[in-house]
Automatic annotation (TrEMBL):
InterPro entries: ConA-like_dom_sf (IPR013320), Kinase-like_dom_sf (IPR011009), L-type_Lectin-RKs (IPR050528), Lectin_legB_Mn/Ca_BS (IPR019825), Legume_lectin_dom (IPR001220), Prot_kinase_dom (IPR000719), Protein_kinase_ATP_BS (IPR017441), Ser/Thr_kinase_AS (IPR008271). Keywords: ATP-binding, Cell membrane, Glycoprotein, Kinase, Lectin, Membrane, Nucleotide-binding, Receptor, Serine/threonine-protein kinase, Signal, Transferase, Transmembrane, Transmembrane helix. It is found in: Cell membrane. SUPFAM superfamilies: Concanavalin A-like lectins/glucanases (SSF49899), Protein kinase-like (PK-like) (SSF56112). ATP binds at K381. Its EC number is 2.7.11.1. Residues 1-19 form the signal peptide. One of its GO terms (molecular function) is protein serine/threonine kinase activity. This is non-specific serine/threonine protein kinase. It comes from the Eukaryota. It is a single-pass type I membrane protein. One of its GO terms (cellular component) is plasma membrane.
Length: 686
């Protein structure tokens, strides 16, 4: 019966292929929140391209300067689906027409110089994928190996802001076929149009291709403001060129945008986009009538079985609901990361061999893998918690780290979801975790220079999460085992399973499960409020600071103290804080710097959350730009949150570049002034 139903449906499908199809049309009047979900489900971003700030940002936002390099970058944003552009191979075959109009904004970096570079292009390409080394003059279209190759299938209209030897100037529009060397290029200067003038400027571009005439026409006009109505299309095209698509692009091709920066940089944005592409149907078949004549009666005859099949489909939907839910939510992510096939990861990890296990925790197991296609080593995280919570953890981690871009964060490569199996794929860190080098004996002893380098890297990453990303991100699980090290011992903060993004107007995040994290790194107020804040992350960083300098875990019990921070505070009071420095590095360290780091660790561990330094001050103190904070000789008492609400803490969203004032910890006491003990009570032993 199932076979009969399939046959009936098959006949109907065959019949409908001969029906007339409407052209493909998409109109993105903007890329604001109301449109971004649709855009993310239909468009694919490559490299640092994103759908962000109400725009298609083909190259990185210049506001991200300092987070990662903006120079020598390229990106693409393309439709996920291929389009058939002609039918058959003879000269009489039908060639598709297309018509597109888009609004662009090209803005140089205000922080580097006023000279923009390199440009943006509307492109038809055989692949979504961005070519390697396609930055600079290659505009994300080609690279030194593929440029000018007639087999590359590239057709583009470029908006170019850098003059190459073959260009008319550094402000032109061009038609490119297989190469960055335009077959037609027109300067925009005579039209009083400047592509990237250094002030907000908006340009409308129209591209019309007539598949019957086989002519492409390009028009351009300025628009006064971003929100102004679209101006009338000019009567005369700036470019008109005889073009047979069959001789240039592949029959099945993708449409979208590409852009690049070189030593000069600019933000290349598309703010509005409308496109219509003619549908090219397959050849009509004489069996269409048979399909209708046989398919409909057969399908009607099988309707009696509808209840049975409905029940089967219902059960199948129950099984697939989890996967559909995750996939639908993933499609709303800006710049959805690469999806890996499960069998690909299974092969990469040798069927998830225990010998390849890198680590295991409450959220899953991490395996070392080798991708067969490009021989790239990866770390594969398999979520193992119960189904519903595992999905939440998976989506939370993927949602946050997907858009984070910082040299001291572990880079996400992709994801996999297959029959309830949830996996994330990360860049492999050759030197393993910081915890391994400090405590397991399997790693090499870290020199003072490396410890300093690692701590500065983690502080930089934390500052990015708290202040430089477009949302405040609270990591909630900063500890040595979550600090990964690359081949040069550069620190990469990882494991975002507990991390949560919070709105900028909010200051905390509460979990229904209560306090999550690792004892010794959890700030005292979290046990009372159940909330995580930026300041609770600072507390964890303070524990990490002391851990790295001392080589002792935060929960190590020494001399009757329950935690290392209390022991260090007692040594500080006695004027011998350097006694805690890891004996494995002997005397090969900077004593002034070690003391400064330990005092910073105590400052970050202050029981009162609002007294802890902010990340920008931490970065300055670690670099030596600011002196160590003055810390009271006795550990202050914890203040019950009701007396000082956590939600009232200062959580400024802008960065205060003023160095940390040491008056924040003002005291007349110094470690060697033993006479100043009077009036204090040693609470660290309580």
């Amino acid at each position: 019966m199932a076979a009969a139903l399939k046959i009936a449906v098959l006949f109907l499908c065959i019949a409908t292929t001969a029906a007339k199809f409407e052209p493909f049309t998409r109109t993105y009047t903007s890329f604001n929140l109301s449109m971004v979900e649709q855009a993310n489900s239909e468009l694919k971003t490559e490299k640092y391209a994103t759908i962000h700030n109400d725009a298609l940002q083909i190259t990185p936002d210049t506001a991200n300067q300092g987070v990662f390099s903006l120079a020598n970058q390229s990106g693409r944003i393309m439709f996920l689906k291929k389009f058939k552009l002609w039918d058959g191979d003879n000269q009489n075959s039908t060639v598709a027409s297309f018509d597109t109009n888009f609004l662009v904004n090209m803005f140089p970096s205000p922080n580097i110089n006023s000279t923009p570079g390199e440009g943006l292009a509307f492109v038809i390409a055989p692949s979504i994928d961005l070519p390697d080394n396609s930055y600079g003059q290659y505009l994300g279209l080609t690279n030194p190996d593929t440029d000018s190759q007639t087999t590359n299938g590239i057709l583009a209209v470029e908006l170019d802001t850098v003059k190459q030897p073959f260009d008319p100037d550094n402000n032109h529009i061009g038609l490119n076929i297989h190469s960055i060397r335009s077959v037609v290029a027109r300067s925009l200067t005579p039209l009083n149009i400047t592509l990237a003038p250094g002030i907000p400027a908006f340009h409308n571009v129209w591209i019309r291709y007539n598949g019957t005439e086989k002519i492409i026409r390009v028009y351009i006009a300025d628009q006064p403001e971003k929100t102004s109505p679209t101006p009338p299309m000019p009567r005369t095209p700036i470019i008109q060129y005889n073009l047979d698509l069959r001789k240039v692009v592949k029959k099945q091709s993708y449409f979208g945008f590409a852009a690049s920066t070189g030593t000069l940089i600019e933000l290349n944005c598309v703010l509005r986009w409308n496109i219509t592409i003619q549908h090219i149907p397959g050849p009509k078949s004489p069996i269409m009538k048979i399909g209708l004549g046989v398919g409909i009666p057969l399908l009607v005859g099988l309707l009696a079985l509808g209840a049975y099949f409905g029940y089967k489909l219902y059960k199948k939907r129950l099984v697939d609901r989890s996967q559909s839910n995750i996939l639908s939510r993933l499609r709303t992510l800006p710049g959805m990361p690469k999806e890996f096939r499960f069998r690909e990861l299974k092969k990469a990890t040798n069927n998830f061999d225990d010998k390849r296990k890198l680590g295991q925790g409450g959220y899953g197991v991490v395996y070392r893998g080798l991708l067969p296609e490009d021989s790239e080593e990866v770390a594969v995280k398999w979520f193992s918690r119960e189904s519903l919570k595992g999905e939440d953890d998976f989506l939370a981690e993927l949602t946050i780290i997907n858009r984070l871009r910082h040299k001291h964060l572990v880079r996400l490569l992709g994801w996999c979801h297959k029959n309830g199996k949830l996996l994330l794929v990360y860049e492999y860190m050759e030197k393993g975790s910081l915890d391994m080098h400090l405590f397991t004996g399997t790693g090499e002893t870290l020199s003072w220079t490396l410890r300093r380098k690692i701590l500065k890297g983690v502080a930089s990453a934390l500052h990015y999460l708290h202040y430089e990303y477009d949302q405040k991100v609270v990591h909630r699980d900063i500890k040595a085992s979550n600090i990964m090290l690359d081949s040069n011992f550069n620190a990469r903060l990882g494991d975002f399973g507990l991390a949560r993004a919070i709105d900028n107007e909010k200051t905390s995040y509460a979990e229904a499960e209560g306090v999550l994290g690792t004892i010794g790194y959890i700030a005292p107020e979290c046990f009372h409020t159940g909330k995580a804040t930026q300041q609770s992350d600072i507390y964890a960083f303070g524990a990490l600071l002391i851990e790295v300098v001392s080589g002792q875990r935060p929960g190590t019990k020494l001399n009757g103290f329950q935690f290392m921070v209390d022991y260090v505070w007692s040594l500080y009071r006695e004027g011998r804080i350097l006694d805690v420095v890891d004996k494995r590095i002997e005397d090969d360290y900077d004593k002034e710097e070690a003391e400064r780091f330990l005092l910073l660790g105590l400052a970050c561990s202050h029981p009162i959350a609002q007294e802890r330094p902010k990340t920008h001050a931490i970065v300055q103190i670690l670099s030596g730009a600011t002196a160590a904070p003055q810390v009271p000789p006795f550990k202050p008492s914890f203040v019950w949150p009701a007396m000082m609400p956590i939600d009232d803490m200062s959580q400024a969203t802008s960065i205060d570049t003023t160095p940390l004032s040491i008056s924040q910890y003002e005291t007349d006491w110094s470690p060697m002034s033993r006479e100043n003990y009077s009036g204090y009570t040693d609470r660290s032993m309580v």
